[in-house]
Amino acid sequence: MSSHGINDDNWRDWERLNHDILALIFKKIPSDEMARTISFICKSWQEVVAGPCCWTEINIEEWCRRVNHPDVIDAIVGNLVRRSRYMLRRLSAYRIQNWGFSLTASFGTNLNVLEIPMSEVNDSAIKKYSRSLTSLTTLDISYCNYITYKGIEILGNNCTSLISLKRNLTPVEFESTQNNEGAAQVNEREALAIANTMFELEQLELAYGRFSDYGLDAILSNCKALSFLDLSGCHVEPEQLEDGETYPSVEYAGMVEDLHDCSTILEQVEVEKIEVLGTKSAENKDPNSVNEELTLVDHLKCKEHEKSMEVLAG
């Protein structure tokens, strides 16, 4: 280390630092990088990284986007969540599956923030594992296509401390269904599930929601603490929003008349279309399903260094 300007005495000072102080420093490093590198520096640092203090907040969303392999992502999420030893306060990941969600819920009795956009978690997993998430205050389940109004209702009943919810959906033009006309139909059930269970919400994002004025009015009537509501891409035009008198405390964003063109909207939600690689997994998928993934995923790369994965998984 002396060749890099750090003499042995200075290095020993770093090595002897209190573990709590080291943990505070290490938490500034991205979670995936911390897992891959810090533990190999010295025994003292390895002990710190092995402890729970470094894993109260886990943010691996960018790493998940680069990997884009749900099975690998689930394995890493499980590995890191276990390290928290029930001290987990925040998890930001991407494309986790039911197994990753189950471990997060099991170790997340103190979890406050859960951000899992575009994940493959379904209603059954929500029903089975979400009872432990009573401390959850912030939840992002945007583009989680396997979660329906039933899962949202269960989350609302179990996550009684929830004050912020992001439930942005895919624009109808890009939703891969066999019947796009059916996808575009008005559906009030998600809006009503929110209105009937999440009474303490303060911030709510519902971009491209399929609900009408009826569903919106239910949310505004029941969620009395609401201060911010994003309605980007929603075709609602209730009179009370225009005069601002009925719900004066609510700040609105993304009303239909204020929306930019479709390309600008897609840029705002960070989605882009990439070419399909001729992989076996892509060949086995339904063409509509493949198209949906390729249209929505942001900055995806199909390869991640195998060595990094092995270190993380270990």
Automatic annotation (TrEMBL):
- Write down what this protein is called: F-box protein FBW2
Give the species this sequence originates from.
Dendrobium catenatum
Quick one: which gene encodes this?
FBW2
**InterPro entries reported in the protein's UniProt record:** F-box-like_dom_sf, Leu-rich_rpt, LRR_dom_sf
